[in-house]
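Hi V.,

Quick status before I head out on leave. The structure for the redesign project is tokenized and pasted below; the design run finished overnight.
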């Protein structure tokens, strides 16, 4: 019997405490709330340990929630004393059925969409699949489920989860992109990228990589020569790659002459970045024997989740039209860039909690999209950082500051942005998109990005002349 200390009583912490207690481990749970040990856990023998900064002397193993950084006093104490610290995903890996492959996805952006596309493809191929990980059910829940037998797991993994999962070796792992994010947790871009590259298990997994991302290509170059790899690109694919030719997604990873998968215009959500996500999903699916027709069927069946580049309202006005789009999931500059480049003319709603990003981190974004910006409406705690970046790199773009930190601040931002979009649409006769792609986290004003998206959607549909979609 191991004596295990579970750090954090959230969804993954409770799941791992439950699974280990069922297996006979002596489990204690650290959390600020005694109520984190609910009746079910207490019945299984899980005990509340308090809100600790020091590991008790008799503990054999610490299992941390993914959001706890290595600098947390409890985890730092464990490291000093040589007590192993792992995450829920690592525990799930050791308890798994080794005959069930894991197809894993990570990257700064696009993880959830890619995993959703992959799951849809596998279901189109009649595979019994569980979609688990970063924003879904904990991986361990699928691993220990007594009433289900899965053919394959599609696993979304964050940099935090990968940091605490040293043994995990997926059958295939895709790294979508690397951009500055969570630097307050990792300490540097290099450390963040190194944790992301763990998706490939040092080349022991089959490697799926974005050939268009220099950071990803550099990380892949350090893998052993014998590593099995599949590349995807938004350009014409070379032999062995997946890519885009004449508006069609093409797979040359199996047939050197190429197999047509689906028209890029049929991918939802729209945008080149989501075509890249579809290529990554297709590449992973092909590693477990899914054919081209099943890939196409799955991608057509896929429906994007809420708050990911979703049109929530439209209006026709004299001389042009206005579309309001909710991309609350765009929580960093890289994600916002992908969203902004999907539309020719935009009034951009941005700002929030920047997680350590500074004005210089927005230089590339603004320089790339400045010609698309009709105006920018800024809100949230760290909005001044984006204001400064605009002043430096696009001083001609009209920027409006919304100081309210309450939900009414979003309503005011939407009202102002919609009026600006109407004026621009009347002037040009074209469609103007009000795009809420904040390039920032939401917790300064909202519980999470989903609440932010819901508040935006309600405000959008309340605008005069805007019809819900």
């Amino acid at each position: 019997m191991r004596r295990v200390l579970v750090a954090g009583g959230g969804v993954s912490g409770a799941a791992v405490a439950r699974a280990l207690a069922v297996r006979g481990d002596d489990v204690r749970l650290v959390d600020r709330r005694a109520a984190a040990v609910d009746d079910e856990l207490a019945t299984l023998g899980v005990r509340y340990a308090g809100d600790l900064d020091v590991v008790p002397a008799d503990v054999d193993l610490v299992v941390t929630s993914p959001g706890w950084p290595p600098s947390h006093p409890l985890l730092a104490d464990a490291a000093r004393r040589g007590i192993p610290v792992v995450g829920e995903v690592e525990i799930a890996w050791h308890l798994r059925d080794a005959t069930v492959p894991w197809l894993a996805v990570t990257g700064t952006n696009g993880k959830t969409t890619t995993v959703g596309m992959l799951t849809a493809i596998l279901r189109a191929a009649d595979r019994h699949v569980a979609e688990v990980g970063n924003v879904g059910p904990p991986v361990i829940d699928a691993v220990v489920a007594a009433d289900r037998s899965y053919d394959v797991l599609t696993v979304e993994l964050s940099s935090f989860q990968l940091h605490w999962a040293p043994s995990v070796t997926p059958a295939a792992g895709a790294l979508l992109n690397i951009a500055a994010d969570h630097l307050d947790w990792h300490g540097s871009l290099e450390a963040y990228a190194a944790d992301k590259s763990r998706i490939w298990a040092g080349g022991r997994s089959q490697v799926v990589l974005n050939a268009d991302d220099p950071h990803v290509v550099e990380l892949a170059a350090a893998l052993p020569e014998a590593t099995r790899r599949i590349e995807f690109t938004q350009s014409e694919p070379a032999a062995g790659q997946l890519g885009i030719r004449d508006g069609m997604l093409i797979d040359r990873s199996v047939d050197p002459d190429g197999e047509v998968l689906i028209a890029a215009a049929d991918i939802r959500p729209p945008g080149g970045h989501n075509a890249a996500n579809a290529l990554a999903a297709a590449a992973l699916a092909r590693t477990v024997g899914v054919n081209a027709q099943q890939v196409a069927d799955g991608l057509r069946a896929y429906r994007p989740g809420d708050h990911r580049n979703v049109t929530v309202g439209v209006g026709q006005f004299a001389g042009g039209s206005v579309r309001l789009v909710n991309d609350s999931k765009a929580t960093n500059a890289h994600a916002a860039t992908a969203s902004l480049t999907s539309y020719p003319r935009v009034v951009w709603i941005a700002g929030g909690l920047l997680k350590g990003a500074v004005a210089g981190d927005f230089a590339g974004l603004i320089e790339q999209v400045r010609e698309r910006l009709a105006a920018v409406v800024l809100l949230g705690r760290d909005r001044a950082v984006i204001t400064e970046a605009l002043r430096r790199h696009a001083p001609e773009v009209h920027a409006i500051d919304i100081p309210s930190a309450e939900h009414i601040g979003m309503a005011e931002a939407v009202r102002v942005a919609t009026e600006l979009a109407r004026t621009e649409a009347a002037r040009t006769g074209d469609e103007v998109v009000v795009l809420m792609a904040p390039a920032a986290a939401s917790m300064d004003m909202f519980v999470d990005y989903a609440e932010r998206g819901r508040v935006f959607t309600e405000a959008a549909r309340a605008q005069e002349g805007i019809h819900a979609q």
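Above is the designed sequence. Residues 407-428 form the longest helix (22 residues).

G. will cover questions while I'm gone.

Best,
W.
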